[in-house]
């Protein structure tokens, strides 16, 4: 029943997204998909590259960071080309939408199973915590935007469930299981691979350092991903870069003054609101050590991730949204603060649980990557779906730990938070798209 309810909700969210620009999104144009999508789609800095890739095989995402994503999209591109030839309708939004709905539903299922079977809370509390999780602003958005985040969330919640089951049954993760998990999780986003390796370490302990496990469970999937990425790069990206250079040279000659001024204005905005990059190399340009962390933690890392800001709602920091926005009322900070306090209380209550310890190591990795090193710090909230599922697991431990006479007030508080977050965040999303 929870899967059916989730399926209906996520289908409705994707219907809302697609219907917002139905005529443009389904137009079977022979070209110009960049303009069709990027001039209309705008949701908090999430990208619509998968729509463009499935529509016309143009690659605009970093395949080094997502080495398997193009392989995943390519069959949909071939199917979409066949459908467009027959119907003159672009089915990219429907193909990607089906993947988003599938991933979101299974994120719900794996989270629910983790709460019921591993943390051992009852059905009522598990349902309440799943509802709370998907009421968070940047957990609600990924199931309806054409980006990789909800796919990553599904794979990560699956890894949590699998690792937890191994721990409960005192079984090891086999090298072949590690190979499959590492291949798919890091194939969608390389940073996910670190979490998969941490999961293997918690399940197997020092046995992960055995030569056979390292060879099959670690090196083999990473080598396969590297080979896939380089093959795709030579086959698709190099010819595309050459074609883009020719187009840019041709457009540079005919660009009118108005277009040049618009480009200059946009570049000035990006420069003012972009990360304060640590250097110019491929690695250091992804880092930012200068941006003040406290406002980011309050307003973005916890704030926007959980409760969307009303001002500049769902704006893109590279278009029109300031990197730091303050809430319009004190009670918004109170709502976020209560969730954070419950999270902290859950961490204390579940600190001796091995699964909780693994999840805290995952979260420490996210904190290190996003807050210490400053990766994507100017829009850190879009990474929330990669760690926010730790919050309900922690709160589940708190539910189990509180005295019986405090259980009803805690349930009432969680119900209020879930209803409030769903109402506030969904209202802002609907207003933005309609």
Q: What ranges have pLDDT less than 50 throughout 5 or more consecutive residues?
A: none
Query: What percent of residues are in strands?
Result: under 5%
| Major pleated sheet | none
- What's the total helix number? 18
Describe this structure in words.
This protein is an all-alpha fold. Helix content is 70%, strand content 0%. The chain contains 18 helices and no strands. The chain has helices at 2-19, 22-25, 33-38, 49-56, 69-87, 92-118, 123-135, 137-140, 149-169, 175-188, 190-204, 211-254, 257-273, 293-306, 330-349, 354-372, 390-401, 407-433. Helix 4 (49-56) packs across helix 5. The protein is globular and about 75 Å long. It starts with a helix and ends with a helix. The mean pLDDT is 92.
């Amino acid at each position: 029943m929870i899967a059916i309810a989730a399926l209906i909700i996520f289908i409705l969210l994707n219907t809302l997204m697609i219907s917002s620009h139905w005529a443009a999104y389904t137009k079977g144009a022979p070209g110009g998909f960049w303009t069709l999508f990027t001039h209309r789609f705008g949701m908090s800095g999430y990208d619509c590259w998968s729509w463009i890739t499935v529509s016309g095989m143009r690659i605009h995402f970093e395949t080094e960071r997502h080495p398997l994503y193009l392989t995943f999209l390519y069959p949909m591109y071939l199917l979409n080309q066949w459908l467009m030839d027959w119907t003159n309708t672009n089915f990219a939004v429907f193909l990607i939408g089906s993947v988003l709905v599938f991933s979101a539903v299974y994120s719900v299922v794996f989270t629910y199973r983790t709460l019921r079977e591993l943390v051992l809370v009852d059905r009522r509390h598990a349902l309440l915590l799943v509802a709370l999780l998907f009421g968070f602003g940047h957990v609600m958005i990924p199931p309806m935007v054409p980006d990789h985040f909800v796919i990553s969330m599904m794979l990560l919640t699956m890894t949590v469930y699998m690792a937890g089951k191994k721990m409960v049954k005192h079984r090891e993760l086999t090298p072949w299981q590690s190979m499959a998990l590492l291949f798919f999780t890091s194939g969608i986003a390389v940073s996910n691979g670190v979490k998969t390796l941490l999961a293997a370490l918690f399940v197997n302990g020092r046995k992960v350092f055995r030569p056979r496990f390292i060879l099959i469970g670690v090196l083999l999937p990473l080598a396969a991903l590297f080979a896939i990425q380089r093959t795709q790069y030579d086959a698709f990206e190099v010819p595309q870069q050459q074609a883009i250079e020719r187009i840019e040279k041709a457009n540079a000659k005919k660009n009118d003054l108005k277009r040049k001024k618009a480009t200059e204005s946009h570049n000035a905005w990006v420069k003012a609101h972009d990360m304060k990059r640590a250097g110019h190399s491929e690695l250091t340009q992804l880092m930012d050590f200068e941006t003040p962390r406290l406002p980011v933690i309050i307003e973005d890392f916890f704030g926007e991730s959980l409760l969307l800001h009303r001002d500049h709602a769902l704006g893109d920091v590279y278009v029109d949204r300031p990197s730091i926005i303050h809430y319009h009322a004190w009670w918004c900070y109170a709502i976020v603060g209560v969730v954070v306090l419950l999270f902290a209380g859950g961490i204390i209550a579940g600190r001796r649980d091995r699964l909780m310890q693994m999840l805290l190591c995952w979260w420490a990795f996210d904190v290190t990557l996003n807050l210490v090193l400053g990766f994507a710090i100017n829009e850190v909230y879009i990474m929330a779906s990669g760690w926010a599922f730790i919050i309900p697991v922690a709160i589940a431990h708190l539910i189990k730990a509180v005295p019986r006479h405090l259980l009803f007030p805690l349930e009432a508080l969680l119900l209020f938070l879930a209803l409030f977050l769903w109402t506030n965040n969904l209202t802002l999303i609907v207003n933005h798209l309609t």
